[in-house]
Design brief:
With 205 residues, this protein is of the alpha/beta class. It has a single domain, classed as Rossmann fold (3-Layer(aba) Sandwich), CATH 3.40.50.2020. Helices cover 33% and strands 33% of the residues. Strands 1, 4, 5, 6, 7, 8, 9, 10 and 11 form a nine-stranded mixed sheet that branches.
């Protein structure tokens, strides 16, 4: 299942990060705000249970997350979404997935991985600003599916139709939340219209 965010607030921040003229600090702030929208939307699909809470006036029932959450930013660009997700899900643990795309083959190459222990009540949320060919996310999801879990989700700022199709085909149980679905991949495997290299723009490199 793929969910595309709507709303003028998200669209305004997308216009900021798409602009080549925007400096790194402004780009980073807009990605953070989009990350908050992504985190709120993603949290709607977390398993929930009902608990009783005593207010100053009476007892009432509230829904809370059932189980634990592990956030998994894909290095390095995924770090730009980590803080907003931690704001919305402050009790989540954090792992890291280090992948670099081979620019000749477009195949992802892993250089680092650190994932906290999981159980059959764990929800994994993979966070990465860009879903291009889908190769990196496909590789990450394939590994997570071999670990104990309750569900696996992914959140991206922009995604190509090709990348979405790759994930929906190979990981139909994954809930994918994106802020924008772009037109296509170009011949070099980059999302267009896109926003350039998210990692470079986040970190000013």
């Amino acid at each position: 299942m793929t969910i595309v965010l709507t709303g003028t607030g998200v669209s305004q921040d997308l216009s900021i990060i798409r602009s080549a003229a925007v400096p790194s600090a402004e780009f980073r702030a807009a990605v953070h705000r989009i990350g908050l929208h992504l985190a709120v939307e993603t949290s709607k699909y977390l398993p929930a249970t009902v608990v009783e809470v005593q207010t100053p006036l009476e007892k009432t029932n509230c829904s809370v997350i059932d189980g634990d959450v592990i956030l998994l930013p894909v290095l390095r660009a995924g770090l730009g979404l980590l803080a907003p997700f931690q704001e919305i899900l402050p009790d989540a643990s954090v792992g890291f997935e280090g992948l670099k795309r081979n620019e000749e083959t477009l195949v992802p190459e892993q250089y680092y991985q650190k994932i906290p222990p999981s159980s059959d009540k764990t929800t994994f949320i993979v966070i990465d600003p860009m879903l291009a060919t889908g190769g990196s996310l496909h590789a990450t999801l394939s590994h997570l599916e071999s670990l104990p879990h309750a569900q696996i989700m992914a959140a991206c700022v922009i995604a190509s139709p090709e990348g979405i199709r790759e994930i929906e085909t190979h990981h139909p149980s994954c809930t994918l939340v994106v802020a924008a679905k772009d037109r296509e991949l170009n011949g070099q495997g980059y999302i267009v219209p896109g926003l350039g290299d998210a990692g470079d723009r986040l970190f000013g490199t």
